[in-house]
Amino acid sequence: MDFVLVHGTTQSPAGWDRVAKLLRAAGHRAIAVDLLTPADLPVEGYAQHARDQYDGERPVVVAHSGTGVLLPAIAEALDARAMTWVAAYIPDFSGGRSLRDEVVELFAPEWIGVDPTADPAKASEFLFHDCDPETEHLALDSLRLFSPAVLAAHRAGPAPEIPSTVIVPTRDRTLKPEWMRQAARDRLGVTALEIDAGHCPHMSRPAEIAGILTGHA
Question: What global pTM score does this model have?
Answer without folding.
Answer: 0.96
